[in-house]
Design a protein that fits this description.
Layout: E1 4-9, E2 14-21, E3 25-33, H1 39-43, E4 51-55, E5 59-60, E6 79-81, E7 84-85, H2 98-105, E8 108-111, H3 115-125, E9 128-133, H4 139-146, H5 158-161, E10 167-169, E11 182-188, H6 193-201, E12 204-210, H7 215-220, E13 225-228, H8 239-250, E14 254-258, H9 260-269, E15 273-289, E16 294-306, E17 321-327, E18 333-338, E19 343-346, H10 361-377
Parallel strand pairs: 3-4, 4-6, 5-7, 6-8, 11-12, 11-13, 13-14, 14-19
Antiparallel strand pairs: 1-2, 1-9, 2-8, 3-9, 10-12, 15-16, 15-17, 17-18, 18-19
Helix pairs in contact: 8-9
Length: 379
């Protein structure tokens, strides 16, 4: 027999559907993702804790789950909402179906609901707290529980998903400009595995460290570069890493930030962040590179952004900060570079997974910064 499930938003919207995945009740901020494919990478993206993800593409699960495609070792969303959940997996690489995987990971899912209605509701009213339940079908009772849940603003969600201990990822290729592999320290705020693959492919020996690692420990490793990964939550709540990034950048270490790492670099330099109405989640966001005048289609997953109007001038903590990229959908900041330091960052995911490869040149830019620093030091 098909199990019933209920989805409730804090504005009172209630939709009944079909339960799949784990049994239970899940609470979180409800966001929509516009990716046409890549549900496994979405589910294993550590940027999604305490969120219920609505997929706008209709059919989900039709190619199953392949172990090699996971971007982390766990599933991170609190809940998963789809229009149609495939019960079979048509893919020779698949080792499990989507419903089996959700059930095994304890993720509550709901299908056969109007995801277009949900998406329009979120666009009109902003990201809303919500719940998905296969055990409570009383909409009023579930709504009361939803309204007791904490807001996303002010929440440090990066610390819980970071690595507990440092680990090494060796280079898989030589640097393009020759010499020994670059020594890169990666602050893990909830990174995706493809970031490490691309750093390794660009000649980097990467040491991944916990998000709370202080600047003196980072600098003691004598890195050629600092990589600040993506991650969940409110960047303004991640206070220790902001100080650490500021000190490492001030020491002249080449620095590259992605998503949450971008926001933290901006905050370290003196800018401010704010919560977006419904965030950017998907693989088809158009970005303009301001200096080159080119357009790239990029993968995004974030609910906060840097306030471009607060980017500091020459009097800033780390000198002037320049906007380098802008999101063409809503004009929000999508990239920065420090004028006096070898540091830059972008709001989106150049490693994609899932998504287009338009932005992978940024890993070349990071390698070039480290190569220039080596040349300046005569190494």
């Amino acid at each position: 027999m098909r199990r019933r499930a209920l989805l409730v938003l804090e504005d009172g919207t209630a939709l009944e559907g079909q339960a799949f995945g784990a049994e239970g009740t899940a609470f979180g901020e409800v966001v929509f993702n516009t990716a046409m494919t890549g549900y496994q990478e979405v589910l294993t993206d550590p940027s999604y804790p305490r969120q219920i993800v609505v997929m706008t593409a209709v059919h989900q699960g039709n190619y199953g789950i392949a172990e090699a495609d996971a971007e982390s070792a766990a599933l991170h969303p609190a809940g998963f909402v789809v229009r149609d959940a495939s019960r079979i997996a048509s893919n020779h690489r698949a080792t499990a179906t989507l419903p089996e995987t959700l059930a095994g990971a304890g993720v509550v899912g709901i299908a056969e609901v109007d995801t277009r209605l949900l998406t329009r509701r979120i666009r009109e009213r902003g990201a809303l707290r919500g719940a998905v339940s296969s055990e409570t079908l009383d909409a009023e009772a579930l709504l009361a529980a939803v309204r007791e849940q904490p807001e996303m603003a002010g929440s440090d969600l990066a610390t819980p998903v970071t690595t507990p201990e440092p680990y090494e990822v060796p280079a898989s290729a030589r640097p393009a400009r020759g010499g020994e592999p670059y020594r890169v320290v990666c602050l893990d705020f909830g990174l995706k595995r493809n970031q490490l693959r691309l750093l390794a492919a660009h000649g980097c020996d990467v040491t991944v460290v916990p998000a709370t690692t202080p600047a003196e420990d980072l600098l003691a490793r004598r890195p050629d570069g600092l990589f600040c990964s993506n991650g969940p939550g409110d960047p303004a709540a991640v206070l220790g890493p902001i100080r650490a990034i500021r000190d490492v950048v001030a020491a002249g270490v080449a620095t590259f930030g992605i998503c949450l790492g971008h926001q933290l670099l901006g905050l370290a330099a003196g800018a401010r962040s704010y919560k977006l109405p419904f965030g950017h989640h998907g693989v088809n966001q158009p970005i303009r590179h301001l200096a080159r005048g080119t357009i790239e289609i990029a993968s995004h997953n974030h609910g906060f952004a840097l306030d471009a109007g607060t980017l500091p001038g020459p009097e800033g903590r780390l000198g002037a900060v320049e906007a380098t990229h802008v999101n063409l959908n809503d004009g929000t900041n999508a990239g920065i570079a420090l004028a006096e330091r070898p540091a830059f960052s972008v709001q989106y995911h150049p490693e994609a997974a899932p998504g287009p490869h338009d932005s992978r040149y940024l890993f070349d830019d990071f390698a070039a910064l480290m190569a220039d620093a080596r040349a300046g030091e005569g190494r």
